[in-house]
Amino acid sequence: QMADPFLYDTGERSRYGCLGHEVQIEHIKAYVCRPSFFTDKAVIVIHDIFGWLFPDTRYIVDLIAGHGYITVCPDFFKGTEPWKTTDHWADFADWMKAHDPTKVDKEADVVLKYLKEQCGAKKIGIVGFSWGGMAVHHLMLKNPQLTAGVSLYGRIIRDSEERYNLLNPTFFIFGEKDHTISYDQITLLEERLKQYCRVAYKIKVYPGQVHGFAQLKPEDMKPEDKPYIEEARKDMIDWIKIFI
């Protein structure tokens, strides 16, 4: 019996009117939001298991764009069904096998090409949540075109030396009460990065926060969580601003 990976109920969410628009990039649909002025800086947002249409993720895309970045959230599931709140957690392991967050390289390349050639982006960062956090960790090991990354509560997939040899600055955000990621995993990540990582990195754990905490829209936040959610988002943006 697998514990439900998500403690929050994604069914009860306020609606969100998006500021951006949808585009087709080769074989991938994507949601794009641009700032009101010209910039050659961009950020790719990788969604969680609920996919690129999930309002919380689009809210984050708009938030980052508001800080002056061309921000794009591609459908990394390539038109296949995202995980739904009505799905059975017993099937989750099989679903994950079919949606592997370490098999995102081709899609990432397509989006990078689009940002450079169509949008004139010169510096590109990446941010990912949960499933997307795992994908960010993978891409920051593989793709030198990504100037900086932020991985939010992505499970540490496997333990091997190459898992820690990040190519560019990466920031790892975790919630203290996330029951999908043990404190031991975070400690191991810290030890190994100290050992193998040759670039800037940061790990931060936010008190009392569960899995998925940093995506919530203001009206969906509990008052006691709000300061930590806002702090995590500010930290995420600050990291991007330092390097991109």
Topology:
Elements: E1 21-25, E2 28-33, E3 41-46, H1 55-65, E4 70-74, H2 92-98, H3 105-117, E5 123-129, H4 131-142, E6 146-152, E7 170-175, H5 183-196, E8 201-206, H6 226-243
Parallel strand pairs: 3-4, 3-5, 5-6, 6-7, 7-8
Antiparallel strand pairs: 1-2, 2-4
Family: Belongs to the dienelactone hydrolase family.
Pfam families: DLH (PF01738)
Protein name: Carboxymethylenebutenolidase homolog
Descriptive labels:
244 residues, alpha/beta, Rossmann fold, 6 helices, 31% helix
Name the overall outline.
Answer: globular
Instruction: From the alpha carbons, calculate the radius of gyration and give it in angstroms.
Output: 17 Å
Kindly report how far apart the N and C termini lie. 43 Å
- Parts with pLDDT < 50 across at least 5 consecutive residues: none
* Sheet having the most strands: 8 strands, mixed
Give the strand content. Answer: 15-25%
Q: What is the CATH architecture assignment?
A: 3-Layer(aba) Sandwich
User: SS-based structural class?
Assistant: alpha/beta
Please provide a written account of the structure.
One of its GO terms (cellular component) is cytosol. The chain has an 8-stranded mixed beta sheet with strand order 1-2-4-3-5-6-7-8, sandwiched between helices. 31% of the residues lie in helices and 20% in strands. The chain has a single domain (21-243), classed as 3-Layer(aba) Sandwich (Rossmann fold). By secondary structure, it is of the alpha/beta class. It is globular.
